[in-house]
Fold:
Amino acid sequence: QETKTSQGYTFVSSSKGRFLNNIVWFSRKQLRSDVNVGGGTLPKTFLFANNLWYAHDQPSASKPRLPVAESAGIYGKHPGIQPPKDYSIQRTSPAAGKGISFKPVPDRDHGWHGFRKRPSIGAYEIH
Structure:
């Protein structure tokens, strides 16, 4: 939480954030920390679930250091995407059908396809 007060307003501590169903493609050697937990936050109230983390330069070091335990995370498995030109996944991807349903439910993926009952991880649903 970078801002605590501004123009006469006082901000409450950042809390209850949700980080769900994401593919996190990163370079381990270029990353200083996995998440930025600044002062004035309540990191123990955050939820991390059903994310696929992939350090493309060092897959065995893909598991992030998070402020709370993640449920159903996937670490070090290539998601089958081809950044920066293609972020879609195939049925054989470890992200296929491994997401979690949540409310409010997004009704469409980045390509305007509907999500399945058990959604995939990432910006695109398999179709």
